[in-house]
Amino acid sequence: MRSIVTCVLPTVLLILLAAAPLRPAPPPESGLEKKLKAMTEKLTSELIDIRRDIHAHPELGNHLPRTSAIVIDYFRKLGIDVRTGYADSGVVAVLRGGQPGPVVAVRGDMDALPITEETGLPFASKDTAVVDGRETGLMHACGHDIHTTMLLGVAAVLASVRDELPGTVVFIAQPGEECCDGARLMIADGAFKDVVPEAFFAYHVDDTLKAGRLGYTSGFMSANVDGFTLEIKSEGCHGASPWSCVDPIVVGAEIVTALQVLVARELSVHNNTVITVGSFHSGSAPNIIPESARLEATVRNYGEDQRRLLQDKITRTITNICEAAGAEFDLAYAFGTSSVYNDPALVREALATAERVLGSKAALVEQKPEMGGEDFSAFGTVAPAVMFNLGVVPPDLEATAVHSPTFLADEAAIPIGVNLMANILLDHQLRRAGPAEKKRS
Fold this sequence. Notes:
By secondary structure, the protein is of the alpha+beta class. It is 35% helix and 25% strand.
């Protein structure tokens, strides 16, 4: 019996192996892909120097004269059509390929944050500015120095193959992402008046992923950033006779609690929603009921329908509580940055490119939507858009933290990001070009 098994098993294994479906071999590197990779490697040292220069001299908001001058000069040296005057310091550069094809765009934001840097890096920022009447340090604590640098790198790489490039690539150097509505203002100022992209791409650095890994989300990626300011009014009275007036602190406290009940009991658990009252100011003495209470809140959710539904529910809740207490009130509700929606079809296509370029499906990390905001969403009102998260956690750290004075990024992510985005854009153009232009020769 043992001898029969010994003879039969190899035969059975051979049959099973022959019948098993073969995994497709990864496609070989094309000539164009090799050119992009070689150009990226050639540029790496130069790009790291640019990143460090921008990092050492951060600028805030929409007025970024030094940073935009670097960007303009770099684009012009590449022989790319440069356009300025959008949202103060915004820059648009248009690279026209040598083959027919569509228009695609890629964005890099340029502005920094009012944070005093504590990284100890030799190129750490020492610059300061007066913000809200107080002098503070400035820092690229959200990776926009890396975003801008990669934008320039992708432009240089694709410009090196412009004769073989189908269509047109638009490079958007955007100010004012952190505070000042830069994306919407660039659109309003006519950034795409005569050259309208059919798709937009962007990166954001990811403080949880190592260099070489790419985070992605299909559908909603970030939240609407809305909010309200509420002032509850009273005549005020002595704390020993609270029946003599409306107590705005009690009314405000009831509202804070009711808003959390609203989230838990009036909204579907499938629609992520956050209401945070982060500021509640009232009174100046322990025995006096004050004349007013002021509340400020942030409201996070996804999609236009959900944000309007939430505005109605919050307004109703506040109105009913104040009227029941006999309190006069002023409510100012505002819509801010819209949620980023990553077009699923563009995500699928780009991930196919990313798996090939990064060499492994394991390098692709699916992520859940975040409740933070990103004004890249404005470009999604022009055409379908996708933002990917690029890993930048240094090798010796488990994680790093954006918007913190100690944020650190692995510069090895810069050439990885440049090479990958250049391939994503090229593949996008090749997929949509005419038959004669679809060869990655």
